[in-house]
Each structure stands twice: as structure tokens, then as C-alpha cells.
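Q: Predict the assembly, please.
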Amino acid sequence: MFTLFEGGADGSWIVDRVVAIVGESVPRVARLNITTRPDQPPRGGPWPLVGFTSNARYTTAAERAALESRQAPLGRPEATRAVLIPIRKNAAWWAMAQDQRREIFEERSRHIAGSLDALPAIARRLHHSRDLGEPFDFLTWFEFAPSDEGRFDALLAFLRASEEWKYVDREVEIRLTRA
Amino acid sequence: MFTLFEGGADGSWIVDRVVAIVGESVPRVARLNITTRPDQPPRGGPWPLVGFTSNARYTTAAERAALESRQAPLGRPEATRAVLIPIRKNAAWWAMAQDQRREIFEERSRHIAGSLDALPAIARRLHHSRDLGEPFDFLTWFEFAPSDEGRFDALLAFLRASEEWKYVDREVEIRLTRA
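A: Predicted assembly structure:
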């Protein structure tokens, strides 16, 4: 199933801020409308951004059990803040084999282990875009209560300081509030 | 980039035989037309079958080096025979984490190590379909010279006898000759 993030005048999320962290930004919009559909829509400009949820590519059974014992679902009433982070990784990342990507992702960057502290405060969902010819490789959607924004910022700082993030060649941070 | 396998009256491959190995078959057609396009087409019935090429999900750097030192490209003039094998894996397969799938795929089934003997005679390309809501999870395309058909049959027999194949709940074998 495909998720569409359509930027425009309508939608249930108000865009508070769009910051280009690495590389080119995306056009500033007032609202974000999120829908799902079974087929990929034809591409037309920088919005909508489109991705699909899928099986996890790196997570071991033990790591998944740790995540599942702590994680919260999307859509909690108190989670009125959200952040959409589209990222693209560079050619060097995608030229690596599975074991090399895993080594950097977890053994050296602690992507999963280091994110556990942010659960269950921060709920998230990963969408894959690279295989669709989209401008970004991944679209990650985060939701949390306003009082947990500091915790989210700490998670972001941790990930951006990691070895894995040296392979990120485009990243945009879109902060939102539920309308 | 998406690859479309369209079954019908036209196309550069003649369909010799369609065999349902596990589960439901696909409609018998006279020809197969293969094209690529940047967007997923809307689904309409059992044909076309659609998938995308992507980074390998299980192959280590050492395994990739072994494959790359032996494998042949598609499109060799002598490779006038082809086989398209759409497969679907069951819910138990997809419920496993990455390390569990890898363990069965290679450590126990020797999918990569056991396929090396078939190279370079058999050229192949894997297309991913599961994330598109397609009826199959994978579409694998094989090409070889008529004199290597026995080698291909041995490869198929090896894979179908593996532990990995216990998770296959739909498989169709489509044998073709270049028109």
C-alpha cells in the first residue's frame, strides 16, 4: 500500500517549518494531506511524496522484540506534533552489500539500539521510496506529544551524528501540528 | 524502474509452456512483451506482471564478489531460451525478521552458494513485486542457450528441494523461446 504526503492548501496537518538539512529543500506548503492507495500515482513535481511500508531490512528478531515491547502506535490523541523527514542516501551507501550496510546501520551507528530510549514517546513509520524513482529514498513520519519534542530533538541529533548519516546526501525536516 | 511482463498476442518471446507448480496458474498467452517504465501502471487482471529491480536484500559482499566474477548479462545472442518464474512466499516467511530470513535463505538453503554452479550459463534478473500489491512477491527472469536447459532444470530442482521453498505458496513456471 502506498502512502501519499501531499503538500498544499488542505490537509489535517499544519506545516510549521520546513528546513533543508542537507541538499535541496522541498517547496513550502501550508498543509499536509496524507492518504493511502494501492497503486503508485504518476509523479508530478516535488509534491506529493510517495512511499510504501514494507518488511524491515536490517532488524533482527531480538531487536524487533525489543522494539515491539516498547513502541506506541500512530494516531494517539495526545500526539499532536509530527515530523516528516525525507532522506536520500548516496551512491556509496547503495553500492554496499547487505552485510556492509547492516554493519554501519547498527553495529557502528546503533540506529536501533540508540533509538529505543525514545520509545514509546516517539511513534514512527518508515516508508520506502527509492524503488519508485522518487526524489528521496525514505520518508519517515514521527508523532509525539508537544512535551516530548525535546526527546525527539535528541533522537534526531543522535542519528545525525552517526556514521550512517555520513551517507545521507539529501535531508529535509518538516515540522507539523495536527489541525 | 519498473519492468512489465505483458502476456498477449504480441511480444518478442513465444510462450512454450505455462505450468502451475504451486497454487493457481496465470492465463495462458501466446507471447510475452517486456517493457520498462518509471511509474507503476494501474493493476488490471493477471497480466501484466510488474516488478522493480532493487539492491540485493541478503547477499554479503563476499557472495556478491563471487557472483559478479561469474555471472553473464541478459541479452546474449545465444540465449534464446528464457523462463519467467513468478513466486509468492507465505505469511510465515514475511513474519520473520531479517536474520531469520537470511538464515533460511543461505545458511540452510544455500540459495546463493548452490546457484553459483549454474553461472555463467544461466543469466538472471530478480524483480520485486510484493511492495506493489502485486499477486506475486518476486518475478525472476532467466536466460540461457538451448544446450544449457538441463543445467537450468538442475538449478530449479535444487531450489525447489530447499528449506526456503517450503515458504513458497504460489509458483508458476513460464518457458519461452525468443521469437
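The interface with chain B takes residues 1, 38-43, 52, 54-61, 63-64, 94, 96-100, 102, 128, 130-133 of chain A (CB under 8 Å). The beta strands of chain A are 2-8, 13-22, 31-37, 49-52, 81-89, 123-128, 138-144, 168-178.
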